[in-house]
Amino acid sequence: MNKRSARKACFLLLSIIICLYLTGCWNYRGLDQMNIVVGIAVDFNKAENLYDLSFEVASLAGANKESGIVGRIINAQGKTIFDAIRNAKRKEADKLFFGSPHVLVINKYLASEMGILGVIDFFLRDGEGRESMCVAISQEETAAIIIESTEGAIEMVSVNLHEIMREEKNIMGSAAQMEMYKIFSELSSKKRSVLLPALRKVKNGDSIVSEANGSAIIKEDKLVGFLNPDQSKYALMAQGELKSSIITLGLTHNLANDISLEIFKNKAKKSYKIEDGKIKVKIEVENHVAVSENQSFINLKDEKEVEKVEKAAEEKINKNIQSVVSTMQERYNADVFGFGEMIYKRDLKFWEEISERWDEIYPTLEVEVKSKVKIRNTALIM
Amino acid sequence: MKNTKKNTVTFREGILSVTLFAYGSSAVMGINLRIEQDAWIAILAAAVITIPFFLIYSRIIVLFREKNLYEISEILLGKIGGKIVSALLTWYCIHLAALVIRNFSEFIQISSMPETPQIPIAIILMLTSAYLASSNMRSVGKWSVVCIFIIFFLMIFTFAASIKHFKIDDILPIMEYPLKKIVMSSILVVSFPYLETVVFLCIGETLKKDCKPHRVHLYSLSLMVIMFLMVFFRNITLLGRKMMEISYYPSYLTARIIEVGGFATRMEGSISLNFLIGGITKIVVCIMAAANGLKSIFNFANYRTMVLPSALFALALSTILYSNTMEMYNFIKYYAIYAMPFQIVIPIILWIAGEIYTRKKNKAPLN
User: Fold this and answer.
1) Contacts of B131 (CB under 8 A, 6+ apart)
2) How confident is the model at residue B4 (pLDDT cuts 50, 70, 90)?
3) Do B120 and A182 touch (CB under 8 A)?
4) How many CB atoms lie under 10 A from the CB of residue B45?
5) How many other CB atoms are there within 10 angstroms of residue B366's CB atom?
6) Spans of all domains in chain B
């Protein structure tokens, strides 16, 4: 063996040795030594001043081809959230792993009295956690009940809920899913309120399942109220965040609504002007829809009829958005549409003048809603 | 003699290694200036402030071709004065290397290995850099050419992922912060990272004779500006301004939440690699410059003998620099003042002295 190939052999050998060392970590943990957390529910026990946390973990032990991975609940209490997480270790041989939690469900009392930013701080700060986790508010007495699985459940509840919330925006648009980092950014910005999905338990066939039920209104990090699914839909529409949804209309005198319009495209623009010292906000909403149900067989080949349907839809949207906006202004005084932010971004000087009094000004804003509906087609039949 | 002739970088390698050097620790720390959406103004303003200094740096190289800053100072300031200046510059190079090592060991500890002590990480970083530094500048030049493509690829990829979410609203209102604060922030950017490239003057002999140094400097400055602006726009679009504001490592957080078409998710691994490439380049250049300085102070024949000692010194220094991460971030505020003598005062003195020296020298034969 000459010198050259000896060098090569040495090099190869060293590379292999280095590979062996580099793949290990200082604190190695195998999959079987971890409890992978998929969902977290945070409650607060006022009597004892303790956080009450429930974790849904994926139990890999019983997983096989037929049954798949099922969830298992671990409960823990602690003086802070991290304390509770570490306390969970007392009951479990394996440490909880927070690499991929899907949802964080927060108790409604906790959210309305103590605020949610305190809760999400830990998850944003921790290196292991995911900023893209979904945050939701429980409408039930506790948050834990939401992620508890019911008999006959074939999937992990949290994973399921995450999918539901994600899809809501794309299909029904009745709940506003928002990632954790966005919540932080939005809530820290100028007097902004946000909508978060609200969850509740309902009966579905034989079992009781969790479902998305509209949104929770968070003002300055505290829960102030809930919107029902229909209201949330129009709230999202006014922000142009609706991916898809249905608008129903009752045009002929029927007992039920007879027309369904499927929204394909939703755009919204908001602007403001100042007239006589009053701020006037204008929301322009544009929807591209298709007629997907026409029970009374209105003749849609006729342009006039099409226009009529469009007008009716526009009116309905105007009315509903107007009502959501005034609910927000009068009842909750929560700026979920970001009017304040709009003024701050367009006219900084003016905003600095009014920002102190924004909570008083916001309910008195004059809001004009102008919507436009364009029917694209009537699906397969006329 | 033969060795030094070979140890040169071409025009392109020069540009890319300067860019990669500046990208180094700024990428991981993020251009976080505490002025939220106005940071892009500071980045641009800083580039404008930097141009005259870059021209001075280039002029020094032109005046003394194939000489480094230590040799130049010995020529201009005499033996003792030259050695004092050399010692100061060497200290700056070692300190800078230590700062970068610390930045990265902190980053790795916080982001992915909370239970691993920082020293093993720092040792690995240091050894890698010392190895690269003990080859020659030519290897660093070639390494930069390869690495910058990896960095650009990842950057463009992540930037493209953010572009569809970008709204002009994200950077409004323009100039929310008072002009004074924006100027102060741009001075921070000038000192870290733009003017840190003064370290390259300490190995200035390695630029090929036929390259125009001012073009190297200005090209790399524009590349830096493009990169930093891309990073800024990407981060503010995806993270939102408050989240960007409070995070120590905004680019890293951005990479964690990026999702491209549902399959390219959780890119923090690749982005960390990206940071490390830049960081290693920076450490390597600093160590080389420091070793070069020690060589001229103690009149060694070759800088290589001093590579490992300087690297070890930087390693030791990095462990005692700060007692915690918050301190590291607070130091950035004072860095501009601390670095001023090395980045501005010494080069300007040498430049003026150099102009006088060359005028005299050119006149002499005529008389």
Assistant:
1) none
2) very low
3) no
4) 18
5) 5
6) 2-366
Q: Does A25 reach chain B within 8 Å, measured CB to CB?
A: yes
Give residue-wise pLDDT tens across range A239-278. Answer: 888 888 888 888 776 677 788 888 888 888 888 888 887 8
Q: Which class in CATH covers the domain with range A242-382?
A: alpha beta
Give the list of residues 6+ apart from residue A134 with CB closer than 8 angstroms, or none: A102, A103, A104, A161, A162, A165, A166, A177, A178, A179, A180, A197
Residues of B in contact with A188 (CB under 8 A): 242
Question: Mean pLDDT across the stretch A15-40?
Answer: 73
Question: How high is the ipTM of this complex?
Answer: 0.78
Structure tokens at B298: 């103690």
**Sign of dihedral through CA atoms B53, B56, B60, B61?**
positive
Kindly list the residues from chain B whose CB atom is less than 8 angstroms away from the CB atom of residue A185. 239-243
Mutation target for A interface from B111, B172, B272: give the one with most A CBs within 10 A. Answer: B172
* Tokens found for residue B84: 């004092």
Burial class (CB in 10 A: 0-12, 13-18, 19+), A26: exposed
pLDDT in tens, A356-382: 888 888 888 888 999 898 888 887 877
Closest of A123, A138, A144 to residue A52, by C-alpha: A144
Predicted confidence (pLDDT) per residue in A145-155, tens digit: 888 876 656 67
Which fold would CATH assign to domain B2-366? Hydantoin permease (1.10.4160)
